[in-house]
Amino acid sequence: MNALIKDRLATAMFWVAAGLVLFIMGSLVGYILYHGLVSMDWQFITLSSHAIEAGDGIIPQIFNSCYLLLLTMIISVPTGLLAGIYLAEYAGCGPLAEMVRVAIQTLASLPSIAVGLFGLLLFVNTTGWGYSLVSGALALTILNLPFWVMLFEQSIRGVPRELAEGSLALGATHWQTIWHVIIPSALPALVAGTFICSGRVFAEAAVLLYTAGMSNPPLNFSDWNIYSTTSPLNPFRPGESLAVHIWRVSSEGMAPGVRRVADVSAAILVLAVLAFNFAACRLGRYTQRRVTGHRGTVPLLPFPYKPTTFLKNDKIFSRDRD
Question: Which of 15, 66, 102, 199 has its CA 20 to 30 A from that of 215?
C-alpha cells in the first residue's frame, strides 16, 4: 500500500468519523425539538407549574434558570478572570503554579453529583441557608470555576507576546499592559468562551438537586423587593431550575400530560443552549471586529493551539527561543 492510498484511507476515516458525530448530534437534537415544538404553545410557557393538576407551565423554572445563571456568573467570571491572569502572567512554571494547575484539573474532573453533595453539606446544612438559589449558585461556581480559570488562562496565553513586549518597551507597567493590551486583545475569546460556559451552567441539573431544591414557593412577579419571601429576586428562596424540572417530571410527575411537559421543557432547554452557542459565535466575531478592525473567525472553544516547535529547512526550531 503506497502513501497516496494511505492518505486517502485516512481522509475517508476522518470524514466518516465527522459524519457519524454530526448524525448522532443531529438525530438527538432533531428528536427532542420535534416532540417538543409540536406541543409547545405560548400559554404553556407563561403559566406557573402545578404538581398534580393539568395545564402545567414552566415560567418559574425559566426564571429560576436565568437567575441562577446570573448569580453564578457574578461570582465565577471575576474570580476566574483574576485566577487566569495570575496563572498566565505571574505564576510562571514553578512548583506552586504546577500544583495549582493540577488542583484545577482535578477539580474539573469531579462528577457533578459529588459537587452537589458537597454543596448540600456546606451551603445547605452548615450555613443554615437551606435549599436556596444562592446555595445552588455557589455549588455551580465550584463545578464550573475550573473551566472558567482554564478558559481565561488559555485565552490570555493566546495573545501574541510581541504586543505585551511592545507595551513594556514603551514604559507601561505590567498591570497597565495586562489591562490595556492583553485583556482587550483576548476579549473575543473571553466573550465566546464565557457564553459557552454559560450554556453549560444553564443546563446543569445534578448539582441543583441537592442545593437549589425541587420546589418553588408562590411567587409574585410584581414584587421586586429582594427581601420578600414571595419575590422572585430573593436569592435565599428555593428554586427549581428547568433542567431539574425535566428530571422531576419524567421520574416523579403525577399530573396529566407529564410527557408533554417533559418534551416541551427539553425542547426549550436545547433551544436555550443552542442560543448560547450562537450568541458566543456572533458576539465573538463582533468583538473581534471592534478590537482588530477586520472580520475573523473565533473558535467555539477558545483554546488556541500554538505549537512550541516548528520545522524550517529540515531543522526543528523552538518558538520560545525566537
Answer: 199
